[in-house]
């Protein structure tokens, strides 16, 4: 293209021409350090800036969210990455960028990415499930310890455990805690202690270190060996921020080896204080119970029926005497009334008796057969009759004369 001061071309045309040339470029692998990272909620595109620290050059990179999400857990600002991207020219602003189709972490980032994939696979198998976790024994008779020889982790566990419970016993297995021999030695030690019936809990301990130093404790073989253990396992690897896969499969995760000793062995002083507190609590509860029962007994004894039982007998005796007197009066009244009725009936009987009639001067004539004479026509002249009066009887003879009534 021929141009001059007299025949210039517009800026838009230049930008278009540069864009057409850039589009003919193929995809390239680019290595750099992430200095800026922008993930806006709801946006399907992620923006980041790659910088070359040696030459102090930066390049904008864009990628779809799905591409970035595959490595989002292991890369942050400042991480070194390798990006497969195709150059793009944004004509309105005249900016060159890379459209990334793949991002890979470099060094530690790549290592963390592999660990994350292993973590997801083991979690899908259920090795990290909470229902698989077993509780630690309250007071283990023997504690298995897998750690480095003469290490600070071994000293921290032994000293803190014996300070808390002097009678605790340990079965220590010294192994390599980093390097190529670490995984097989730790696995063998864990399986040996798990097979020992005297061991009640196993502690796997190591001090802090870099991600590479702690890598053996994220090994799949070790994770599966711990998952198969019948004895509860405590993981005490590194410091609080360190989280190897062993922490996830173990029954208990301790932040440090010292914390592992505290979680595994009870403190004798604390337990004695707890016993004293429980004894005092039991004494108070029992004292309260006795006081309540004593008050109830005193209240029962203070009732009239218990305090003065003879009063009830006296009251009943008075009631009985009153009832007896009432019954006597009632019986007397009934007898008096019955006597009156009897006397009245007797008087009526006497008044109506034939003897009373006879005492008034009347007589009853009886024939020889004892039949009473009721009419004049029943007797004949000269017939002998018997006359009955009030005080006796005498014979009479019927004369011929008859007298009408």
Q: Uncertain spans, ≥5 residues at pLDDT below 50?
A: none
Major beta sheet, specifics?
A: 5 strands, mixed, barrel
Structural class: alpha/beta
Q: Using only CA atoms, what is the Rg?
A: 63 Å
Shape: elongated
- Looking at how many chains there are and whether they match, the oligomeric state comes to single chain
Number of strands: 13
Distance between the termini: 194 Å
Helix and strand run: HEEEHEEHEHEHEHEHEHHHHHEEE
- SS summary, helix count: 12
Calculate the mean pLDDT score and round it. 86
**Beta-strand percentage?**
15-25%
Strand order, largest beta sheet: 1-2-3-5-4
How would you briefly describe this protein structure?
The protein is an alpha/beta fold.
Keywords for this entry:
alpha/beta, 5-stranded mixed beta barrel, 5-stranded parallel sheet
Describe the structure.
- With 405 residues, this protein is α/β, with parallel strands linked by helices.
- The chain has twelve helices and 13 strands.
- The chain has helices at 11-23, 65-69, 108-124, 152-164, 182-195, 220-227, 245-249, 257-264, 268-301, 304-307, 309-352, 354-359, and strands at residues 28-38, 45-52, 57-64, 80-90, 95-105, 142-147, 169-174, 201-206, 233-237, 252-253, 364-366, 384-389, 392-397.
- Helix 4 (152-164) packs parallel to helix 8 (257-264) and helix 5 (182-195) runs parallel beside helix 6.
């Amino acid at each position: 293209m021929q141009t001059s001061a007299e025949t210039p071309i517009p800026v838009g045309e230049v930008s278009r021409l540069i864009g057409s040339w850039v589009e003919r470029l193929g995809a390239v692998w680019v290595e750099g350090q992430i200095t800026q990272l922008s993930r806006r909620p709801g946006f399907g595109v992620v923006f980041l800036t790659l910088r070359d620290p040696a030459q102090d050059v930066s390049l904008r990179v864009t990628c779809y969210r799905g591409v970035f999400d595959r490595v989002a857990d292991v890369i942050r600002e400042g991480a070194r990455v390798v990006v497969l991207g195709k150059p793009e020219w944004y004509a309105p602003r005249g900016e060159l960028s890379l459209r990334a189709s793949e991002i890979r972490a470099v060094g530690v980032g790549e290592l963390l990415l592999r660990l994350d994939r292993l973590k997801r696979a083991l979690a899908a198998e259920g090795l990290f499930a909470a229902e698989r976790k077993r509780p630690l024994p309250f007071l283990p008779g023997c504690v298995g310890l897998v750690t480095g020889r003469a290490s600070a982790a071994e000293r921290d566990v032994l000293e803190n455990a014996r300070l808390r419970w002097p009678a605790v016993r340990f079965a220590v297995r010294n192994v390599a805690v980093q390097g190529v021999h670490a995984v097989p030695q730790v696995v063998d030690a864990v399986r040996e202690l798990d097979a020992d019936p005297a061991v009640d809990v196993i502690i796997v301990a190591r001090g802090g270190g870099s991600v590479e130093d702690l890598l053996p404790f994220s090994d799949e073989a070790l994770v599966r060996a711990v998952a198969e253990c019948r004895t509860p396992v405590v993981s005490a690897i590194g410091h609080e921020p360190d989280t190897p896969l062993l922490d996830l499969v173990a029954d208990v995760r301790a932040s440090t080896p010292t914390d592992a000793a505290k979680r595994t062995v009870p403190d004798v002083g604390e337990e004695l204080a707890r016993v004293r507190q429980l004894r005092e609590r039991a004494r108070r509860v029992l004292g309260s119970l006795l006081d309540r029962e004593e008050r109830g007994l005193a209240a029962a004894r203070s009732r009239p029926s218990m305090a003065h039982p003879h009063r009830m007998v006296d009251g009943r005796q008075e009631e009985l005497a009153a009832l007896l007197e009432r019954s006597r009066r009632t019986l007397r009244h009934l007898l008096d009334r019955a006597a009156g009725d009897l006397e009245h009936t007797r008087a009526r009987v006497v008044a109506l008796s034939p003897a009373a009639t006879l005492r008034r001067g009347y007589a009853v004539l009886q024939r020889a057969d004892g039949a009473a004479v009721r009419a004049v026509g029943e007797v004949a002249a000269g017939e002998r009759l018997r006359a009955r009066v009030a005080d006796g009887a005498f014979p009479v003879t019927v004369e011929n004369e008859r007298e009408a009534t």
